Amino acid sequence: MNLKINTKYPSVIDLRLKAQKKIPKFAFEYLDGGCNEDVNLHRNTSELRDVQLKPNYLKNHSGASLKTKLFGIEYDAPFGIAPVGLQGLMWPNSPEILAKAAFNHNIPFILSTVTTTSIERTSELTEGKAWFQLYHPTEDRLRDDIIKRAEAAHCPVLVILCDVPTFGFRPRDIRNGLAMPPKMSVKNILQILGKPHWALETLKHGQPSFETLKPYMPKGLDLRQLGKFMDQTFSGRLNEEKIKPIRDMWKGKLVLKGVASEHDTEEAIRLGLDGIIVSNHGGRQLDAGQSTIKPLKTIAQKYGDKIEVMMDSGLRSGPDVARTLASGAKFTFLGRSFMYGVSALGKQGGDHTISLLKTELQQVMEQLNCEKTEDFPNFLINQ
Ligand SMILES: Cc1cc2nc3c(=O)[nH]c(=O)nc-3n(C[C@H](O)[C@H](O)[C@H](O)COP(=O)(O)O)c2cc1C
């Protein structure tokens, strides 16, 4: 196997452990945690791993290709980088590092409204290929302004969220008094002093801030004030009334992220969306909810010919991507895995994590005798 990766970290598990050692506890816990008691977080990974595949060894094999077409674009792999907020808190410049790595590997990068680089900078880095995830603004004027910026930046896909009617209840972040920029409490200063590489890089790049939202927000908000600003500026609960004007205005592809039910899939189809991401925000919103792999199978079977069905939450490896595609998703996204990669390896982290996942997935395809990513469902063992 010709590995183009750092051989000290041949799995996302290795990257996670390294990330934990390298970044302050408040940043790692923000990245790593789910919500409430982390039940949904663990359900995502454990139930996904119950999916099993069967190989066909004694058939001719003419090579496996990871290339996957989505919304008329051919990507080099059937996975992309999910939107993650506050990325610069975990590693300075991480959204830029990931956007560039995604561009070099020809996979989609989704920029979050609340991350630490702007729509315009991301577009520059990716030659207009990055997708944009919009938190729904309360004011029409702000909504229209952000959408126009995404359009001017040539963004091909706009992602809206249905799984954030509330702020997730995350005990670690509450305990840590998580803030942007990080609060200089004694506890946090001690945590930062213990992570000199992170501290130096953060000093070098300056304090992270919400670059896309900068023109609209007051400076230096802590978690409580940020919560208030977010509550006032964004209204998380989506409905037909809010989706319709976006559909009318946005000429590119429109995707609904956070779908966990047949009902919401039917609504997405009725309202003219082009795709859904079956997702529970990586287990960060509803601890009593289902894993994403559970509803995926039915949703993909019933609606996969009417709307593009994608999935995220719980994927940590090439075999996990294979399991998800075999269960009916057309495309997959990963959130934490890429952030573990960049937090562990800095500038090399994006390239390393994408190469690792590609290598793992290629191995699964060759082992199964699966030549095209759309053929994965043929290898599913129905339990
Ligand atoms: C630290 C963190 C921040 C996130 N911020 C956002 C966000 O701003 N917008 C969004 O749509 N999803 C956000 N998500 C959810 C991810 O887009 C994605 O759904 C999730 O990470 C997938 O699960 P995984 O981490 O198990 O791969 C966030 C996830 C994490 C871990």
Structure description:
The protein has 383 residues and is an alpha/beta fold. Helix content is 45%, strand content 10%. It is built from 17 helices and ten strands. The chain has an eight-stranded parallel sheet with strand order 3-10-9-8-7-6-5-4. Strand 9, helix 15 and strand 10 form a beta-alpha-beta unit. The protein is globular and about 60 Å long. Bound molecules: flavin mononucleotide.
Describe the global form. Answer: globular
Helix content: 40-55%
SSE-based structural type: alpha/beta
Determine the strand fraction and express it as a percent band. Answer: 5-15%
Biggest sheet, spatial arrangement of strands: 3-10-9-8-7-6-5-4
Summarize the main sheet: 8 strands, parallel
Q: What is the mean predicted local confidence, pLDDT? A: 93
The total beta strand count reads 10
Rounded to an integer in angstroms, the radius of gyration calculated over CA atoms is 20 Å
The first-to-last residue Cα distance is 32 Å
Number of helices: 17
Report the uncertain regions: none
Secondary-structure element pattern, one letter each: HHHEEEHHEHEHEHHHHHEHEHEHEHH
Spell out which ligands are present: flavin mononucleotide
Quick structural summary:
The chain is α/β, with parallel strands linked by helices and 383 residues long.
Give me the secondary-structure topology.
Layout: H1 12-22, H2 25-32, H3 39-49, E1 68-70, E2 73-75, E3 79-81, H4 87-90, H5 94-105, E4 110-112, H6 119-126, E5 131-134, H7 140-152, E6 157-161, H8 171-176, H9 186-193, H10 196-205, H11 223-233, H12 240-249, E7 253-259, H13 262-270, E8 275-278, H14 293-303, E9 308-311, H15 318-326, E10 331-334, H16 336-345, H17 349-368
Parallel strand pairs: 3-10, 4-5, 5-6, 6-7, 7-8, 8-9, 9-10
Antiparallel strand pairs: 1-2
Helix pairs in contact: 1-16, 5-6, 5-17, 15-17, 16-17
Flavin mononucleotide binds at residues 30-31, 44, 82-85, 112, 114, 133, 161, 257, 279, 281-282, 284, 312-315, 334-337.
